[in-house]
Structure to design on (140 residues):
């Protein structure tokens, strides 16, 4: 009887993905944890790190099981803007800080560097395509 309960439990989401900045010493990670399988709400946290200086975890607004899209934009030196739906956050890797960005601009503050999303049934950070380098005509 107890074994019949195990398949639904495996449907719970507990995973994370990292945006590595300049190697492994600096990163922003999204962690998602579904507490119970019968509720679609997923607890979410952002982990901001710059090793060996700091590492901090911040709870953010909950998400929905099986669905995630959080865009990451350059917003300045060691500063990143995170957008998930209508919610904006600013992450600073210098001192591992995160804050809700209440007065976010209508347009993204900088270049899109990538997106936290589900791909191949896993949470992943997918880097944005790099802009194409213009080809100079011969003789220039």
């Amino acid at each position: 009887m107890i074994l019949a309960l195990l398949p639904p439990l495996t449907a719970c989401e507990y995973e994370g993905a990292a945006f590595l900045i300049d190697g492994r010493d600096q990163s922003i990670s999204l962690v998602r944890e579904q507490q119970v399988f019968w509720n679609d709400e997923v607890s979410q946290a952002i982990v901001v790190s710059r090793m060996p200086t700091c590492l901090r975890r911040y709870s953010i607004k909950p998400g929905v099981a099986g669905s995630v899209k959080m865009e990451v934009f350059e917003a300045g030196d060691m500063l990143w803007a995170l957008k998930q739906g209508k919610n904006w956050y600013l992450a600073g890797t210098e001192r591992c800080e995160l804050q809700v960005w209440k007065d976010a601009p209508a347009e993204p503050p900088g270049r899109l560097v990538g997106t936290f999303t589900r791909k191949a049934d896993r949470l992943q950070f997918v880097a944005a395509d790099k802009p194409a380098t213009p080809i100079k005509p011969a003789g220039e």
Summary: The two ends are 76 Å apart (CA to CA). The first helix runs from residue 6 to 9. Residues 12-127 form one domain. The chain is about 5% helix and 55% strand.
